[in-house]
Design a protein that fits this description.
single chain, alpha/beta, Nucleotidyltransferase, domain 5, 5-stranded mixed sheet, 47% helix, globular
Length: 324
């Protein structure tokens, strides 16, 4: 296997990318996985800013990371891209075509960002990941390499902090209509949205002057801590829905009765509290041998891990070919 390095350049490098809707991390590493340079740039989710703007920002990140590591595009042995918004085969085709213009040598891995979170957290290289931030996605890889994940489009599945706040708003509206119980969520959300009363809040939401904001999700836990029964039901419902996604993936991969690592990532998981308690309880009820593994390293390290895995496989293939 050629290392792709030119005179004065590193002896081949790996490129790992974690591209998100808010920030994008890029790492350049040597063929042993040692970090040579890192860069953080902005949004590279084409669903948020469009494909052209996303690829422009990603180009900047890759260029700056390679430059900082003293490498060029033709020194890249493997590049692994874990990108938010990479949901369908059509996305792979469009983004892949754009990445062709980067001029990177060597092999390329292009996956949804959930897969690099799984690789970063799993010590086995397979398992299931539940990533719950503003949105949510659940993905898994079986020991035999089969993989699947939720669509992450909001149909038939919960959507992380965004859907949690939406559920809380439903509870507030139900209390206003006298079809639900009074709840501390009403005052908390009115204050958070800066609305004078419930009618004003929902008029603004219905007319597009305000929008559901996932950043308000911690208010649900605050109401739970104050003893609010409605908020407790909202949080429990969200946790069970997200746990059901894990069970669904486990069922598709035939892992429900197996021991597997469940990597948990994203702000909702990190916040802990009742959500995590209810989430874990539901998962273990259906998948009793699941092992919880909170993600404690940056997801971009999983992209480097995928690149390193492929580089090692390529090296082994070359060695076998030479022996033959």
């Amino acid at each position: 296997m050629s290392d792709g390095a030119g005179p004065g350049e590193p002896h081949g490098v790996l490129l790992g990318v974690d591209g998100g809707g808010t920030k994008t991390d890029v790492i350049v590493a040597d063929l042993d996985g040692r970090v040579l340079g890192t860069v953080r740039v902005g949004c590279t989710n084409h669903e948020t800013v469009g494909l052209e703007a996303a690829m422009s920002e990603l180009t900047r990140g890759v260029h700056d990371a390679l430059t900082g590591a003293g490498a060029t595009a033709d020194a890249v042995v493997v590049a692994a891209f874990g990108l938010a918004g990479l949901d369908w085969h059509s996305d792979e085709l469009a983004i892949g075509a754009a990445l062709d213009g980067f001029g990177l040598a060597g092999e390329r891995i292009l996956v949804n960002d959930s897969m690099i979170a799984l690789r970063a957290g799993s010590g086995r290289g397979w398992g299931i990941v539940s990533s719950i931030g503003t949105g949510a996605v659940t993905a898994g890889v079986a020991p035999d390499g089969r993989s699947c994940r939720t669509m992450s489009v909001g149909w038939g599945e919960p959507c992380g902090a965004s859907s949690l706040v939406a559920d809380a708003l439903h509870a507030v509206a139900a209390a206003h209509h006298r079809t639900g119980s009074p709840t501390a969520l009403t005052e908390l959300l009115l204050e958070a949205f800066g609305a004078a009363d419930v009618a004003t809040l929902f008029e603004d939401l219905s007319r597009g002057r305000r929008r559901v904001d996932g950043r308000h999700a911690p208010l649900v836990q605050r109401a739970v801590d104050a003893g609010d029964r409605v908020a407790t039901d909202v949080l429990d419902h969200s946790a069970v829905e997200h746990a059901a996604m894990v069970v669904g993936i486990a069922d598709q991969l035939e892992l429900c009765d197996a021991e597997f690592e469940l990597v948990t990532a994203g702000g909702v998981h990190t916040a802990g509290g009742r959500f995590v308690e209810a989430f874990v309880a539901h998962v273990l009820d259906r998948c009793p041998r699941a092992v919880m593994v909170p993600l404690t390293v940056p997801p971009v390290t999983g992209a480097v891990g995928l690149a390193l895995d492929l580089a090692l496989n390529l090296s082994m293939d070359v060695t076998r070919s030479r022996r033959a």
